């Protein structure tokens, strides 16, 4: 198959639309549903991301994409009991495979952003992973293959309209890539940069103790950023992205946005949130929305006098600013990656509030000394990679 006609492009008024190969056949097979233009953008970017994570770590990998940026990415390390609870999969009586763990973590870290995602998996989709996907609101999935029972589970999703794409894992794209904007063709060499342990060798801070887990987490951060709309910043802990800030014009805004998402991930694990007494039959998305409001500044919207009964059996007490800060102060050993240099130390100051200990960024700012000094103040380890990772 050299080309595939699509219903429309980014928007319904943008017709005609298709994906096609100038030479050879498309490296995909649509097994179910009718993926759209944006679905394929997410699928192909996501597939590259998980493929690189698998090569860098040797672990099964998954990512949850929305609007051409990852909402979450993770490798298949085991889930803790708390993580199973906050990712709403503690009720499943099944063995979690490495790939299922990867997807649960990629989807669960930022459930608000992952709602209606497109999923990419590094390995053949197994039954356990398909059962997790079945429960979530999602547009589709791409993987190098599907176990027969897993495929049947996915094909039944959305009344048979769920997009399931099989990709040839041996496909290698051309070294030159092109796209058109305003009728003008842009051409560039593909970003074939390999991110591995050596990528973080140039440590510029006083503290130079980069642990093996920190190397994995920094690799996850930088590979995730390689496929995130720039400017972008990514916080990672224990093998999963916990906060991604994408597409902001100012780097400090990326750092704040991603940091707030990382904070929310940690706050969801606090006893105040874990012990919320939800009404019976509440939908998963409604629980996510309620928790997001409860841990934020607009908590009265969900625990106010006239509204709390809609969501909770018993009215929760306010999660005060002091209580939240005390819980956040327990978060530690977080890794932070940036796709371009930090121009000021304020980014490090913000990162410190979210438990960041390890930092990787290109370096090259006229204020590098200020950024290094700020890292040293908090005993952080920072690597200068010397390489920018913009993606547009």
Structure description:
The chain is an alpha/beta fold and 392 residues long. The protein has three domains: 3-167, AICAR transformylase, duplication domain (Cytidine Deaminase, domain 2); 195-267 and 331-384, AICAR transformylase, duplication domain (Cytidine Deaminase, domain 2); 271-318. It is built from 14 helices and 15 strands. The chain has helices spanning 37-57, 81-86, 98-108, 111-114, 127-135, 148-155, 212-226, 251-267, 271-274, 284-294, 300-303, 321-328, 346-352, 368-377; strands at residues 3-6, 17-20, 28-32, 61-66, 69-75, 117-121, 138-143, 163-167, 176-181, 184-189, 232-237, 240-246, 334-338, 356-361, 381-384. The strands form four sheets. The chain has a six-stranded mixed beta sheet with strand order 3-8-7-6-4-5. A five-stranded mixed beta sheet has the order 12-11-13-14-15, with helices on both faces. The longest helix is centred in the first third of the chain and has 21 residues, at 37-57. It is globular, with a radius of gyration of 21 Å. The two termini are 28 Å apart. One of its GO terms (cellular component) is cytosol.
């Amino acid at each position: 198959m050299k080309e595939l006609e699509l219903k429309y492009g980014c928007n319904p008024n943008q017709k005609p639309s298709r994906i096609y190969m100038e030479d050879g056949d498309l490296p995909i097979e649509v097994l179910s549903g009718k993926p759209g233009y944006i679905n394929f953008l997410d699928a192909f970017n996501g597939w590259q991301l998980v493929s690189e994570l698998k090569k860098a770590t040797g672990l099964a990998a998954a990512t949850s994409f929305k609007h051409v940026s990852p909402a979450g990415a993770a490798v298949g390390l085991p889930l803790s009991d708390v993580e199973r609870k906050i990712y709403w999969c503690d009720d499943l009586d099944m063995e979690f495979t490495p790939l299922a763990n990867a997807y649960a973590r990629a989807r669960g870290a930022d459930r608000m952003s992952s709602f209606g995602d497109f999923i990419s998996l590094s390995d053949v989709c197994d039954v356990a992973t398909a059962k997790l996907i079945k429960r979530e609101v999602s547009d589709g999935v791409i993987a190098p293959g599907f176990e027969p029972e897993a495929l049947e589970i996915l094909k039944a999703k959305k009344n048979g309209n769920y997009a399931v794409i099989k990709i040839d894992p041996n496909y290698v794209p051309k070294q030159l890539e092109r796209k058109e904007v305003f009728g003008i063709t842009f051409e560039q060499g593909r970003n074939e940069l390999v991110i591995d342990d050596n990528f973080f060798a140039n440590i510029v801070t006083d503290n130079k103790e980069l642990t093996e887990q920190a190397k994995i987490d920094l690799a996850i951060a930088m590979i995730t950023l390689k496929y995130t709309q720039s400017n972008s910043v990514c916080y990672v802990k224990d093998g999963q992205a916990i906060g991604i800030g994408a597409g902001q014009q100012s780097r400090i805004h990326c750092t704040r946005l991603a940091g707030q998402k990382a904070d929310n991930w940690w706050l969801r694990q606090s006893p105040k949130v874990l012990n919320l007494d939800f009404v019976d039959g509440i939908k998963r998305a409604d629980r996510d929305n309620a928790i997001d409001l409860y841990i934020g500044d607009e908590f009265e919207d969900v625990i106010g006098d006239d509204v709390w009964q809609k969501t909770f059996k018993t009215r929760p007490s306010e999660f005060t600013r002091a209580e939240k800060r005390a819980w956040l102060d327990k978060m530690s050993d977080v890794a932070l990656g940036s796709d371009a240099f930090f121009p000021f130390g304020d980014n490090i100051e913000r990162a410190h509030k979210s438990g960041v200990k390890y930092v990787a960024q290109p370096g090259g700012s006229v204020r590098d000394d200020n950024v290094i000094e700020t890292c040293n103040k908090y005993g952080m380890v920072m690597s200068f990679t010397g390489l920018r990772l913009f993606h547009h």
